[in-house]
Fold this sequence. Notes:
By secondary structure, this protein is an alpha/beta fold. Helices cover about 35% and strands about 15% of the residues. It has helices spanning about 50-60, 60-65, 75-85, 95-105, 120-130, 135-140, 155-170, 210-220; strands at about 5-10, 20-30, 35-45, 90, 120.
Amino acid sequence: MPREVVLDTETTGLDPESGHRLIEIACVELDDFIPTGRSFHRLIDPEREVDLEAERVHGLSRAKLSGKPRFSDIEVVEELLIFVGEATIIAHNAAFDRGFLNAELARVGRSGIAEHRWVDTLGLAQKRFPGMYNSLDALCRRFRISLAERERHSALVDAKLLASVYLELQGGRERGLDLGEAERRPLFESAARTSYGPRPRPLAPLSTDAERSAHAAFIRRVLKPDALWLSFGV
């Protein structure tokens, strides 16, 4: 699977054609459906006032953004384009983020990012859950992804949450390998590990030779040749 970038933005309002601007942009990188830990995040001086309704959502006022780099500065536009590269871009309600990002790129004489490079997780969710409420919050709750960090809308927090949602919409972290319900841990946090000693009296296997052989064939068919599980002799 090619490299993907999950993107989220915050803005001064709802419509770039009426002069509203980006004030925050964040991306997180996925490689073969695995978060790499690499991210891009900038707060941006919009060079205009922030609508009150928008400020209530994200908590970013013009005063808080004063002194931040402008979109036209190298540390924003150039570094953003380098980070994104040729990757597919994942966004929730992608038309909104694409409209604002391409409007900013047009202001600095750069080409916009074509529509075919974007994947809209809202559209994916609507196909999977027709007739249901498919906001980012709703999808996180549906997939039992923690919203503890999301006191207000933040582009970086939302991009990380969206990455988790996107992977679930694509079939979960082990795509094609469904072992039923399991504990879901955040993809961007390290979970504590517990060590256990050997069982004093091992239990006898409950599966037959034929069942174990069929299971081993299934694992070899589904997992990649270098999968860790294969090193245990399955």
